[in-house]
Amino acid sequence: MIVAGFGIRATASLPTLRALLGNVAVDALAVVADKADHPALNALAAQIRRPLLRVALADLATDRAQTPAPQQPDRYGPTSVAEAAALAAAGPYSILIRPRIIAPDGSATMAIAEGKTP
User: Fold this and answer.
1) Cα(33)–Cα(30) distance, integer angstroms
2) Residue percentage of the chain with pLDDT more than 70
3) pTM attached to this predicted model
4) Euclidean distance between CA atoms 33 and 118, whole angstroms
5) Phi/psi of residue 113, each to 5°?
6) Cα 111 → chain centroid
7) Domain locations in the chain?
8) 8-28 per-position pLDDT tens digit
9) Within a 13 Å sphere around the CA of 18, how many CA atoms are in the beta-carbon half?
10) Is the pLDDT of residue 99 over 90?
11) CA-CA distance, 88 to 4, in Å (whole number)?
12) Mind giving me the DSSP string for 30-54?
């Protein structure tokens, strides 16, 4: 399973999220649970007809994420929330296949993980 994980601010728009995803084919989108009601993210999931997976704070794979994120709130851990959400949603043996990228306006980040079997 290929999962696009997002870090998202209130100001993020559908065009911004769509531009981050580009033409990448994914099986699901993932985001930390407290951001799962974001209208633009839900619109993207509907547009590409893929589920939006909610990842609880306690389940974020912060230990497997690679990119430091010193400016994000402490509750998300020290590494990219987009990477941590993608890795958690893709499963315990997932790998990061696209590290975090940042939207030009800074309103969102995205990373892609692929689930693997042991």
Assistant:
1) 9
2) 100
3) 0.94
4) 27
5) -125, 155
6) 6
7) 2-114
8) 999 999 999 999 999 999 999
9) 10
10) yes
11) 11
12) EEEGGGTT-HHHHHHHHHHT--EEE
Helices 14-21 and 39-48: crossing angle in degrees, nearest 10, is 50
| Amino acid identity at 2 | I
The phi and psi torsions of 86 (rounded to 5 degrees) equal -60, -45
DSSP 3-state assignment of 12? coil
Nearest to 70 by CA among 57, 80, 83: 80
Q: What is the rounded end-to-end Cα distance, in angstroms, of the chain?
A: 14
The span from the CA of 1 to the CA of 27, in Å, is 6
DSSP string, 57-91: GGG--TTT--SB-TTS-GGG-SB-HHHHHHHHHH-
Distance CA 70, CA 36 (A): 22
Which CATH fold topology does 2-114 show?
Answer: Nucleotidyltransferase; domain 5 (3.30.420)
Residue 30 CA to residue 32 CA, distance in Å, equals 7
Amino acid in position 16: T
